[in-house]
Design a protein that fits this description.
Length: about 400
């Protein structure tokens, strides 16, 4: 079947999600939820009164007793609490589904002896399927919102520390999933106008998983839309290269305060073809013909959206030109080089986290030194992720 070039972007042809949903449902054996958007989701935590959740005490495997002082969020699928131990230390408690609880323990066990920048579990409460973290007062996102602008040197230090963590995760075949601003936890102090970065850590994401070499996360949309790689956007195979693309989007935000897909999400959050709109933007900013061909090969001919990707590419023309990142104005050339290497549309051609650490843009930037080890014992649980 031959597809003729379109004179308009493909998203203008696909105004309903029905067709997109149908091909995905037919292709994957797992249930895919209908994309109904009733409200915008806030990135800020919802703090509720504690009358919905009785004041409680829980005992962790370490023997430490946790007294719940405040409920941050309480719903059937998301229960988060602030608690304090007998010695006054503050902790964050999160109740998970049993299958996710097992997977969290597996990842924690693989990282506990080495990943110093990963917010490892401090304790677990198996009877409640709860995990326990050290409590952090701020995130990278909130810090940026409170300050007009962090010094570029500080931003680089934070990003390189995160990239160093990502390299540690990948060395142990752990895929983070998708980066989010609230996942970056920092301890930043100020004394007489002098900023000191004491700690940088990455929160344990529900998408984080141990993925053996040669395998991928499949049949699952991983993480928030605004930080996804192209393959994650369309339910393609997700692996370490997907982390690299997501990290590049985070870098663009950190340096230029620009969320690449934010306007699409704000204006179209109730529209059914939002995924196609995001893919179109990804192609416009980061694809070239060679990269797109590699991406199609990576997905495989059997992927149901392959024809749509070709049509989206053909929809760009003189009246609707692409806006490649390679031609953006006011971008430092070293930073441009780094982002282009991390966002190659062909996942097999993206640089690794270790290679990115050696990039010129990170020259002479120190990584925050820290040591944060968990106190819980190793788990022997099995992973429940779908791998291929």
């Amino acid at each position: 079947m031959k597809f003729m070039p379109s004179q308009r972007p493909f998203s203008q042809f696909l105004r309903t999600w029905g067709a997109h949903y149908s091909v995905l449902k037919a292709h994957y054996s797992i249930p895919i939820p209908q994309p109904i958007f009733r409200r915008k989701l806030s990135t800020r935590p919802t703090v509720t009164n504690t009358f919905q959740q009785r004041q409680a005490e829980y005992v962790g495997e370490t023997g430490r007793i946790y007294a719940v002082h405040r409920t941050i969020r309480y719903s059937p699928l998301d229960q988060n609490f602030l608690a304090a131990s007998d010695d006054g230390q503050k902790f964050f408690l999160k109740r998970l589904r049993p299958e996710d609880f097992k997977r969290y323990q597996i990842v924690n066990d693989r990282l506990k002896d080495s990943a110093s920048h990963f917010r490892l579990l401090k304790d677990v409460i198996p009877s409640e399927s709860m995990i326990v973290y050290e409590h952090y007062c701020t995130s990278f996102y909130r810090t940026i919102r409170r300050r007009n602008r962090l010094p570029l040197s500080m931003v680089k230090k934070i990003l390189k520390s995160l990239l160093n963590l990502l390299a540690e995760l990948h060395d142990r075949d752990v895929v983070y999933g998708v980066f989010g601003l609230e996942d970056i936890l920092i301890d930043l102090t100020e004394d007489q106008g002098q900023l000191t970065l004491n700690k940088v850590q990455l929160a344990h994401s529900i998408n984080t998983a141990y993925v053996p070499r040669g395998s991928n996360i499949v049949g699952r949309q991983v993480g928030p839309r605004r930080w996804r790689s192209p393959e994650a956007t369309i339910l393609g195979p997700v692996n370490k290269a997907s982390d690299i693309f997501s990290f590049a989007l985070l870098c663009i935000f950190a340096v230029y305060r620009r969320v690449v897909f934010n306007d699409i999400l704000v204006k179209n959050h109730e529209k059914s073809d939002i995924q196609i709109s995001i893919l179109e933007r990804q192609i416009s900013y980061f694809a070239d013909r060679k990269g797109l061909e590699g991406f199609m090969k990576y997905l495989g001919k059997e992927h149901p959206l392959s024809p749509m990707i070709e049509l989206t590419w053909d929809g760009f023309h003189e009246g609707n030109p692409r806006k490649p990142f390679s031609k953006w104005d006011n971008v430092h050339e070293d930073f441009r080089s780094l982002i282009l290497a991390m966002t190659n549309f062909d996942p097999s051609k993206r640089i690794t986290a270790r290679q990115a650490l050696e990039h010129k843009w990170f020259e002479d930037v120190e990584v925050v030194q820290q040591d944060d080890r968990p106190e819980i014992q190793e788990s022997n649980q099995d992973s429940s992720l779908v791998l291929r």
